[in-house]
Design a protein that fits this description.
Blueprint: H1 6-35, H2 38-48, H3 52-64, H4 74-86, E1 98-105, E2 110-117, H5 119-128, E3 132-141, E4 145-149, E5 154-157, E6 165-174, E7 179-185, H6 186-196, H7 198-206, H8 212-215, H9 217-233, H10 238-246, E8 250-253, E9 259-262, H11 310-317
Antiparallel strand pairs: 1-2, 3-6, 4-5, 6-7, 8-9
Length: 319
Amino acid sequence: MAKATGGNAGLIKATQQQAAQQGAAQQVMSIQNLMSNDSVRKRFEQMLGDRAGAYMSSVITVVNNSASLMKCEPKTILSAAATAAAMNLPIDPNLGFAHIVPYKDNRTKTYKAQFQLGAKGYVQLGIRSGQYVRLTSNDVYEGEVRSYNRFTDELEYGERTGDKVIGYLAFFKLTGGFEKYLYMTRSEMEDHAKRFSQAYGYDLREGKKASNWSKDFDSMGRKTVTKLLLARWGILSIELQNALKLDDAVVHENENGTLEAEYIDNDGKTIDVDGVTVETEQEQQPEPEPAPEPQKEAPPEASADNELSQEEAEELFGK
């Protein structure tokens, strides 16, 4: 296959960049249109009261600051934001409570936004339930665990002897006195990440650091033990049940008002990332460069496929 060189290559690159910028502008305009819809605004006001305006503005800011989110279907961004709002959790990625994460659906070749909960979000929901006296997670360093009996679930603690992280531990104590912890070694967490994160698997194969497992493995380890501990042995409020169901999913609202989780990862697995854009192996494969075509500049228009009409908004959120 012939490769474009010199001036042709520059023209192709400029044309592609212009098309991408126009598409991103269309998506941003569309999410702004969604947020200005009366039914959408009323729904956020019902959930957040006087804070609705600021929250909706923060959603637009998050989208504006992410080139990948700009590619996502605006309706999926709106659903992820509404899910976080219903749990009264901020979606500022710097805070670590909840995230709107762009992800490519390789089946449909479209970008969708997932709702993802951070470790702080799980702790916040657990505290709110009133069932937990304490709920925490920590890195475990060399020497801090002398032995672990998996049959009796007993740990023998020791003094830290080094700076190497050898595992992760989450702990809760209920108001009734029941205590439980979950300990996973670094090796066990590695196996978990390889199983549930195809982005991490791609990083390992290609020597890259695109996923958050690669960028901040310890943070992901703490989140994972917290999530698994609650799912297996915690007392789950309705909020926690919804969080476990909707975490790492594209969220849809049915006609009866119930929420449905769509897991767009291959093989039905959920990718466990914590507020960062991830790309799968298929996403990172280069596409053939198209031949340059003359294009006329036109002002960006909101995509009709992604605009939310008044009727659609009322169907999603109620009148």
